[in-house]
Amino acid sequence: MELEVRHLKALCAIADTGSLHQAARRLGVSQPSLTTQLQRIEKSLGAELFRRERTGCRPTLLGRAVLSRARPLVDGMTSLVGAALAEAEAARAEGPRLRIGSTASRVIGGWLRRLRVRLPGTDISLRVDVSARTLLRTVAAGRLDVAFVHEVEGFPLDVPEGLDRRVLLDREPQFISLSRDHPAAGSPVVDLGDLAADRWMVDPSVDGEWDGVRRVLGAAGLDPPVLHGDYLTAASLVVLGEAVAPCQPTSGPRDDMAIRPLRGDPLAVRLMLVSRTGADTDVVYGELEAAYREAARRAAGYHQWLLRNRSPLAHTP
Predict the structure, then answer these.
(1) pLDDT per position as a tens digit, 253-289
(2) Separation in Å, CA 158 to CA 24, 86, 147, 165, 166
(3) Can you give the pTM of this predicted structure?
């Protein structure tokens, strides 16, 4: 079997996610098909590239050597295709356009609404991705103009060269979602210790998310059972009392779920807008900031947190 770019992409995805399941999800294939593909690649090279462990997949010595050469090839091909697509799209475009990327956020709807009012006649498109790293590479390749992403505290993103960052909020606390009848839901602030016996649900495909939660729980001396899955599934389990899950503080109020801050705000992310160097992002950033203020005001618990911490985002300019 001859190695192709798609094989190298699969190897990089497995290394990035540390999991065949999450890599398959990122690549849009089934886990069995990715497992078979990896086995064929390893057979063609005559040795294992990854060790399958209980906690995931880890590159072997040979795997690290192959990855060190595979990544530049994958990035180069991605840049080539991205540049070609961008040129072709620009040739077809009639009038101004704005291509936005974002990780999941309660702010996106208000941001788009404001931009459509502020930039009439502009063709505005949106791409949402669980991976901030993927969005950053897409901006670098010229297939997105800007990306609104979050960076988990303690696990900085690798920002490609040629990109600028504008920080919206240096430290946004992550709240906790729990069922309405959870014993801790009656308190305005929840201690980590009150959740020691609960199952925690985390989406490991979100860059840095599981690492951040594991670091915080470990620092608190806690080792609760952890479930892995997307946050749509997490919400349904939280409502039933089967799990608790970190959530954005801008999460709106729900009759069937409690959203509470954690004491001491141990979990946090940095929010930033990323664009190519030299791009004029004043309007895009300004409307993003305004949309974030709106979302924060609608979330009463978070608005109170911003007021207590004297954040300028708590006030209308």
Answers:
(1) 778 899 999 999 999 999 999 999 999 999 999 999 9
(2) 22, 23, 14, 12, 15
(3) 0.72
